[in-house]
Amino acid sequence: MSECSKQKPLISVIVPVYKVEKYLNRCVESLRKQTYNNLEIILVDDGSPDSCPMMCDGYAQEDERIKVIHQSNSGLSGARNSGLEIATGDYIGFVDSDDYVSDKMYEMLLTEMMKRDADIAICRYTRFSGELAASDDEQSISNIKEMKKMDALDNLYGADGEVYTVAWNKLYRRTVLADIRYPVGKINEDEFTTYKIMCNASKVILLEKALYYYFYNENSITTNENYLANRDIYEAYEARLNFFQQRGIEGLEQKNAKLYLDRIIERNKKLRKISKEKSKELLAFYRMKYLDFGKTVPGVGYLVYYISPALYYTIVNMKER
């Protein structure tokens, strides 16, 4: 490593690895080719039963920037947490191992963070399901949005909520992560975590450019009935509300309740096509939670769904046409 690279801030990129032998090389090569080269790439083999452990060790032999952790399977959260325990970087990033990133992603994020004294930098992302996503690397950044902490938290509930919530399209100043860790054994781990990290930030920036490529697998966990029926995400919303109340952060209660109810309705629409029994269970859960949260959310749609989901979906389908 050159003296020049030693003087630049070190970025630790944590990559959980599990059963992705088909996609791992694409991911790792996109990190090795970064135009910002002062990286610590941490591959966390989460007990993968395929050839991934051997592949990870091979990458480490080829590139001194790559470190490998081998551990028993503990899920995405456990793998990220293990990476955080050994990361030495001034800045931290996460990449899922079936995704990949633009060659310029970390250079662009870090440059704008340092220029604007930001604690978190976010970029947009492109979903794809084939071999590679269409690249826009040659396009310049059209806009950079600067936000204070409260504005960033508010955006968790907006049209771009997913952009702000997910862990992997961001670069974090190490200090904002502090001792925050991802909840082991939970699905939707980002929903439990990102708002806490943002609460430690003074300034957040959004680069209006897709630098992260998110691989969408139609057979992934997010499309099966166990995922759709799982209630971890609702536990996360309740924990978020309690966290805000304990911190004296006001003004987000109504938005949190709306997102809570919207997610139940959205998931149940998909679930009822797969499992009528689990759909009925989720509807019963909605009706219980509507009594807790529904009064705080304006509009009659939630009440219509409470009374008759069939009527609600009929009205929604008519509007969509």
Brief summary of the model shown:
This protein has 321 residues and is of the alpha/beta class. The protein contains 15 helices and nine strands. It has helices at 3-7, 24-32, 52-62, 75-86, 105-116, 149-155, 161-165, 174-177, 194-199, 225-229, 232-247, 253-271, 276-293, 301-307, 309-320, and strands at residues 11-17, 39-45, 66-70, 91-94, 100-101, 120-128, 144-148, 170-173, 203-215.
Helix content: 40-55%
- Average per-residue pLDDT, rounded, comes to 93
Unreliable runs, pLDDT <50, ≥5 residues?
A: none
Q: Order of SSEs, N→C? A: HEHEHEHEEHEEHHEHHEHHHHHH
CATH superfamily of the largest domain: Spore Coat Polysaccharide Biosynthesis Protein SpsA, Chain A
**Total strand count, please?**
9
Q: How many discrete structural domains? A: 2
- In terms of structural class, how would the helical and strand content be classed? alpha/beta
- Helical segment count: 15
User: Per DSSP, what share of the residues sits in E-state strands of 2 or more residues?
Assistant: 15-25%
What is the molecular shape?
globular
* CATH second-level architecture of the largest domain: Alpha-Beta Complex
Amino- and carboxy-terminal Cα gap: 59 Å
Rg for CA atoms: 21 Å
Largest sheet: 9 strands, mixed
CATH topology value of the largest domain: Spore Coat Polysaccharide Biosynthesis Protein SpsA, Chain A
Q: What top-tier CATH class of the largest domain fits best?
A: Alpha Beta
